[in-house]
Every structure is written in structure tokens, then in C-alpha cells.
Specification:
The chain contains seven helices and 17 strands. It is an alpha+beta fold. It folds into three domains: 5-56, Structural Genomics Hypothetical 15.5 Kd Protein In mrcA-pckA Intergenic Region, Chain A (Roll), CATH 3.10.290.10; 65-126 and 209-234, 2-Layer Sandwich (Alpha-Beta Plaits), CATH 3.30.70.580; 131-207, Alpha-Beta Plaits (2-Layer Sandwich).
């Protein structure tokens, strides 16, 4: 670090969190620079020591992205005090990583983990419309009218939001493939509930350009250079 850098960007480059999450940590008084509580807009200069809850935060030069098959029952966020198992408990990796996007406890499938806060920022920017693909198993056969209605977007009262148009393809009697471009809380389950269905199983098989592939439940793998180049290009970043 030859010159100063904003504290929220510094934390993102440590792989601790996204810039938005960094702003929250700073507001909560959990970040210190040289033992002084950091303030929004502070700069980190060469030689400064930055800590989060007392643990030193260091930037890492190597940016990694992991593709992880999250099993059903594993919680993504470490903020859930009642979680029996979290993603970071389940992964033994030498570099500190955090999740880019979420997947609820009852769902399984692809979750991307990285130490690149800028990548997390780019992927979680809702207006960007990055695709996520799911296999959804329902309690009964979906009717064409219901598929057409959900595909156009529906109002979810609990969230005070209308979902964006999405792609829904029936692939067997009670199973559909869905491609959405946002990540509202339990969105797919809420959408089908509005149409009178129950989601029995939900698996994410693709995030932007990265597919689940042959990964088995609980396994993870580092993305290859080719995969990284494709992902960064798709979200508008340079490696």
C-alpha cells in the first residue's frame, strides 16, 4: 500500500466484508485504526494497524473465489446465534473468505466465497441483474397459467416489492428450472406460495457464469483462471 486508502475499501480488500458491510461495522464502533475507533471516511495509511473486534485485518494480494456446495441445514450468515452449523464452520481454508450472496438454511447448492470485497460488492448490487439459476421441486404439478404469472413478476406483500420478470421452465411433472436476477429474502419460496404451491426442495446450480458442476454436498473448489476471468468480466470488474 504505497498511499492511503479509504477504511471501507481497505476492509473490503482484506476480504472481511463488502464495502456496505464495512460501513456498518465502522458505524458500530467495531473497527479501529492504530487503537483509535475508526470513523466513516477515515483513511488507512502505510504502516497503520487496522483491527475488527480486536483482530488485525491485513490485505492479501491473492484474490481467491471458491465454489461451495452448501448442504441443506447449513446457515450462511455467522450472525445467527442459533445456527447449528455455518458455512465458515464447514470450510477449512487457509485464507479468510466470506460469502458473495446468500442461500437460506433450507436450500442447497452453489455458494461463492471470496476474499475480494469488490467482487462481493459487484455481485450483490441488485440493479446489476446478475443471473442465478435454480432447480425447484414443488408439491404438485405447476399449471401453465401459474408459470406465466410468476414469470412476469408478482407483488410480495411482506417485502413490499414486485419481483422482476424471470425465466421458468418445466423440466418434469413437479420440477421447474428458474433463472432470477435478484435475491429477495426467500424469494422463490414466497413466489410459489403466492400461486398456491409449496417448495419441497430448492437447489442453486449457477451463479452468473459459475456452475455447480460435479461438486458434491459439502465440497468446495477454487475457481480456475478461466472461470475467474469469465466471472470478473461478467460483473464488470478487472482482475
Amino acid at each position: 500500500m504505497s498511499e492511503g486508502i479509504r477504511i471501507n475499501k481497505y476492509l473490503a480488500e482484506c476480504g472481511l466484508c463488502s464495502r456496505r458491510e464495512a460501513d456498518r461495522l465502522i458505524a458500530e464502533g467495531r473497527i479501529c485504526i492504530n487503537n483509535n475507533t475508526a470513523q466513516p471516511g477515515d483513511w488507512v495509511m502505510p504502516g497503520d494497524v487496522v483491527t475488527c473486534d480486536g483482530a488485525e485485518c491485513r490485505r492479501t494480494e491473492k484474490k481467491v473465489v471458491l465454489a461451495y456446495y452448501k448442504p441443506v441445514g447449513v446457515t450462511v450468515t455467522a450472525a445467527d446465534d442459533h445456527a447449528e452449523a455455518t458455512v465458515l464452520d464447514d470450510i477449512d481454508y487457509p485464507i479468510r473468505v466470506t460469502y458473495a450472496g446468500r442461500l437460506d438454511k433450507d436450500s442447497e447448492g452453489l455458494l461463492l466465497l471470496t476474499n475480494d470485497g469488490e467482487l462481493i460488492n459487484a455481485m450483490m448490487r441488485g440493479k446489476s441483474g446478475h443471473e442465478k439459476e435454480y432447480i425447484v421441486k414443488l408439491n404438485k404439478e405447476p399449471q401453465p397459467d401459474d408459470i406465466a404469472r410468476l414469470s412476469k413478476g408478482v407483488w410480495i406483500e411482506d417485502l413490499k416489492k414486485k419481483t422482476r420478470p424471470c425465466r421458468i421452465e418445466k423440466i418434469s411433472a413437479r420440477t421447474v428450472r428458474m433463472v432470477i436476477t435478484e435475491g429477495l429474502n426467500r424469494q422463490i419460496r414466497r413466489m410459489w406460495r403466492l400461486a398456491g404451491y409449496h417448495v419441497n426442495a430448492l437447489k442453486r446450480i449457477r451463479v452468473v457464469t459459475v456452475s455447480l458442476g460435479d461438486l458434491k454436498s459439502g465440497e468446495y473448489t477454487e475457481l480456475t483462471d478461466t472461470q475467474l476471468n469469465e466471472l470478473y468480466k461478467a460483473v464488470g470488474l478487472k482482475r
